[in-house]
Amino acid sequence: MASVAAMSPIRARLAFKKAFKDAFVCKRCLQHQAKNPAAYQSTRQSPFLKAFRSHGPAQVRQQSSAINAQPRSSPLGALGRSIGQSPKTHSAPAKASSWPETNSKSVAYWLLGSAASVFGIVIFGGLTRLTESGLSITEWRPVTGSTPPRNQEDWEQEFARYKLSPEFKMLNSRMNLEEFKQIYWMEWIHRLWGRVVGITFLVPTAYFIIRGRVTPRMAGRLVGICSLIGFQGIIGWWMVKSGLKDDLFEQGKHPRVSQYRLAAHLGTAFVAYLAMLWNGLRIIQEHRLLRDPAESAKLLETLSRAELKPFRRMVGALSILVFITAMSGALVAGLDAGLIYNDFPWMGQGIIPPKREMFDPFYSHTEDRSDLYWRNALENPVLVQLDHRILATTTFTAIVALWAYSRFSPAVRSSLPKAAKGGMMGVVHMVSVQVALGISTLWYLVPTPLASAHQAGALALLTTVFVLGSRVWVPRRTMKLVLQAARQTRNKTTPSQLVHAREPETLASDATLLDYGNHAMQNLCRTFTLKPFIQHRSAFNHVCKTATAVGKQQPKDVSKADNSAVIEDEEQSAKASASAGLNLNVFGALAGAFSGKNSKKAEEDGSTLEEHEQDASVSGAGAGNLNARGAANAEQSGRQMRAAIQEKSAAP
């Protein structure tokens, strides 16, 4: 060590530069060198820290074979070999996958934009139903039907087809051509919008899958949503066809679409919308968590607590309850059940209507009336409205109870993240608005603006519940990636831990010195992480300043402490600086050893292992110079402080 410390500054700087030449040259510069191609493929991490990462099985076997074939000429080379080798070896290297580990953020924005488009078409479809425009186009032509009538003759043909429908003959027999055009354009825009939703989802799905922007699981989900959109178009025509049947001409029949098919059409749209929304939110959450793995690991650990498991289950059950309530609203709309009992909470003379109205034998289709109850529950407007009232009241009560549970339960309140608390309040506010819209729609005999707003409120309420669910759900796959990234971040300080394991007598004798050494190593690792391609001169100066700053740390206040204690602390600071310098010494030696082992230069120009060990020795010599400089600066600081204290104590 004395010979190392005695090296001249110029010689040490040249040796340090030579040892770390490849480590502090960027990848772009190395690519321009024909004889020395880049040995490090990652542009996001410093080659200096890259050397300390675990190697693949194939590389470990190659290195082990090369090392075993060469004689062990120096202890430093043996140290590098012992750290570079992995105790676990595999029989075959892992195959590289063409699929990415994470989904592109642009996929999330596209999914949310598609969800917004589906939200809009759901609202416009409700307006089409409320204006009784859904049966104006009596044919289903997915391709040629996208072109509207162009002249008067085309309009006359379309109007003639509509005149043959039950709706025209029984309800709109006095309608003229201009009135027909109004309802025709409503239905035509609704169908065209559906085609646009399908195309704008199918084409980007193929693009993202071909370009490798999504994971295999997400690719399967996108294909499933595409299939759901196509199925939705088929259900739409199946629903319209139910309103064009000839049996609707019978006396007592009302020309409307089947409430079952209407609920299926609306439910499929809801499922497609929620699938887009959920997957878009999950991708954004994934990128947000991977941005800071250390903090995200703490957040995921909090969400994984047993106290929040019942809350997550309640949120899942609540989403199902809201969906069922919305589907019961579709039955109300399909039967025009909102036009009877336009009061709340009363239904006639009481809270519930008379039993003979709720279970009317008219709706039974069997002689033994075995289907009396379920057919009345799904086809009797009186009982359908009562069911919707009960479900809506239950939903409101459940949401308020869930909010109270999150607010007044100490375990849940302390574990629930701030974003989840805000999402819970959003659900409470939205359900209050939705209840007000529903009651107002009844009181004012289902006006079109209020009825459309009530339908939009149902989808908005379901949206807020899903947003809340995304904030409390624990994504298992993302959690695995976050923990892996956090583990890699912690592994950046592994060289310091290796030094302490290598020198237990020197570094572990004093806990204070051990803490100072760790602090110095963390600063050094942080420097190379933030500046992966930093110039060697600035890195050299920063390491010197780090060792000096550690030596100057004062654990106690001079004005309040005893003089002897302060002097003793200063001596400990000097020793701490020397310990930090020793950390830098072995850190540099290990870096040189790994640089020699991982370099591709050995494969190209036939250099031997001894040459790489010499490079490692030069690196250790450069770090040894840092050791001497840091210790000298700290000792000088201690002498100055000791002199100042003695002068102060000698003063009268």
TrEMBL record:
GO terms for cellular component: mitochondrial inner membrane. Its cofactor is heme b. It is a multi-pass membrane protein. It is found in: Membrane. Residues 60-73 have a biased composition (Polar residues). Residues 624-634 have a biased composition (Low complexity). InterPro entries: COX15/CtaA_fam, HemeA_Synthase_type2. Residues 600-615 have a biased composition (Basic and acidic residues). One of its GO terms (biological process) is heme A biosynthetic process. Pathway: Porphyrin-containing compound metabolism; heme A biosynthesis; heme A from heme O: step 1/1. It catalyses: Fe(II)-heme o + 2 A + H2O = Fe(II)-heme a + 2 AH2. GO terms for molecular function: heme A synthase activity; metal ion binding; oxidoreductase activity, acting on NAD(P)H, heme protein as acceptor. The chain crosses the membrane at residues 107-127, 192-210, 222-240, 260-281, 315-341, 388-405, 426-446, 452-474. Residues 60-100, 551-572, 597-652 are annotated as: Disordered. Keywords: Heme biosynthesis, Iron, Membrane, Metal-binding, Oxidoreductase, Transmembrane, Transmembrane helix. HAMAP family: HemeA_synth_type2. PANTHER family: CYTOCHROME C OXIDASE ASSEMBLY PROTEIN COX15 (PTHR23289), CYTOCHROME C OXIDASE ASSEMBLY PROTEIN COX15 HOMOLOG (PTHR23289:SF2). This is Cytochrome c oxidase assembly protein COX15. It comes from Passalora fulva (Tomato leaf mold).
